Amino acid sequence: MTKLYLVLAILGTVLPYGAFVPWLFANGVDIVLFAEQATVNAISTFAWLDVLVSAIVSLVFIIVDGTRNRIKYYQVAIVAILTVGVSSGLPLYLYLKEKQQKTSVRC
């Protein structure tokens, strides 16, 4: 599972940024335009609200579980959620947790 989580974290970073970076180059850092285009209709608003709730749940989970289980570098997954999204941060956290559990089992 460790390798799978790492691959998913990489894909979860590359794929969203693959769509976002061209838009950023074309439009610059225009927060108003970004918000307008992201919520242009009910379906896109639904998707953004789903992502927002998923991000909040993932942040709470990572903070609580990471602290409780003393996962090293769990804060990196929080930064990934805040800068990329759930598609990057959640699998990154699961990778960190799985890697640490494998290491502690070997000792």
Polypeptide structure, described:
This protein is an all-alpha fold. It has helices spanning 2-27, 31-38, 42-68, 74-83, 86-106. Helix 3 (42-68) packs antiparallel against helix 4. It starts with a helix and ends with a helix. The mean pLDDT is 94.
The helix content, as a percent range, equals: over 70%
Number of strands: 0
Number of helices: 5
- What shape does the CA trace take? elongated
Element order: H for helix, E for strand: HHHHH
Approximately what portion of the residues adopt beta-strand conformation? under 5%
The radius of gyration computed from the alpha-carbon positions, rounded to a whole number of angstroms, is: 16 Å
Distance between the termini: 19 Å
Stretches where pLDDT falls below 50 for ≥5 residues?
none
Set down the secondary structure blueprint.
Blueprint: H1 2-27, H2 31-38, H3 42-68, H4 74-83, H5 86-106
Q: What tags apply to this protein structure?
A:
107 residues
Brief sketch in words of this structure:
With 107 residues, this protein is mainly α. It is 86% helix and 0% strand. Helix 1 (2-27) packs antiparallel against helix 5 (86-106) and helix 3 (42-68) packs antiparallel against helix 4.
